[in-house]
Amino acid sequence: MREQLLIGGRWVDAAGGGQLPTRDPATGAEIGRCADAGEADVDRAVEHARAALADPGWRDMPPAARARLLWRIADLVEDNAEPLAELETRDQGQPIGVARNVSVSMAAEVFRYYAGWCTKIEGATSPVSVPGALHYTRREPVGVCALITPWNFPLMIAAWKLAPALACGNTAILKPAEQTPLSTVELARLCVRAGVPDGVVNCLTGGPDTGRALVAHPGVDKVSFTGSTEVGKAIVAACAGNLKRVSLELGGKAPSIIARDADIDAAVAGNLQGALLNSGQVCAAYTRFFVDSKRVDEFAEKIARAADGLRLGPGIDAASELGPLVSAEHLDQVAGYVATGVSEGAQLVTGGTRADGELAAGNFFRPTVFTGVTDDMTIAREEIFGPVLAILPYDDPEELPARANGTEYGLAACVWTNDLATAHRTAAAVRAGNVYVNMLPLLDPAAPWGGFGASGWGREMGSHALDEFTETKGVWINIGGQSR
Asked: Which InterPro entries match (predicted)?
């Protein structure tokens, strides 16, 4: 498989001829090569995106026609659901059931959701106090949008950036992570098949240098990035030169609070899924478990036993419950965090090792549970992005907000309780963009998604995404009584 760049409606090689390999994380085998875009390719993509932004065929497309276009993309995603899911699994490693029922399904639903918004992006009249003046607002596209996506859910996150950007009339340049480019390239191909005008959607594959060139380009009006907090900070600095609009969905270290009155079996089942979806490679994964000291032993024993019983294997195997980590480099990072946890005094209950035997060639790490974790330990403070669970006991519920909020992140949190008052009080006290009560960290196109602090700026999905991809213009009309 050899993929090219999509620039101005044409599939082309990188100007410099460079290519990057992409590998199956379950085996380490190379499954394809993608063009490695350089600065010249970025320049061409931006040029075509700017031209498309001014082209009447896109600029003046009626909202209803734009809605039909997004709906066609959704239909094509659904029509190609099985090959898309298999591509996502082989490139990223996630279990095939997750690829089908989360990644591909959500991608289609996001395009349908924003197809509905195309005809509802409205301005408003303002009750100004200037005599003889009419004031109204227009919502207009931001312009050329660089959409930079991560490697954990490449198709789904590309969709939830691209769909609102197009619904608002912008043009876009997709830049997938170099580890998992294939499904994003396929999404760009489906956009072409759906009839998106040339230059409206462009796709550049490549490494970090490609992303840096795109972020720094003066012809890009907005950057929407999902990824690490470290890279997010670098993007903010790079965008300061021409004050690009920036939205960021960054890291997380989600606390899950298990109250004394919680249904422990339900909490174990829910937290296991909330922690280990996609092998823990989820920014909202439950990672810090604050358990009432009266229930902590029961919770730890049950969740460790359940984690130890999960079946590791290639994501393409429907029997696999836990797939590989995305790369050998990331596998080393996760293993390093586990070693640090042990050295700092946390008690390893289960896991903590790479898989051996027939899985040794892949990037497999056994689900890992620590007890005896304290708030100052590295595994309780830093984002691991892997199948590592840290259990921390508490005695006084009054101490929970401060401890749960004791990181720089604020993306997601969870509460397990049978008491309604506890649920509402805790949800209000925890500083996080999304708080879940007795449930998994689920997403929906209609619900805003984003975080506080080092977890990012702005919100994706819901009506909030329209604010990220539009500018508000005020128009003043002299209707009498003003000097001309």
From this structure: Ald_DH/histidinol_DH, Ald_DH_C, Ald_DH_CS_CYS, Ald_DH_CS_GLU, Ald_DH_N, Aldehyde_DH_dom
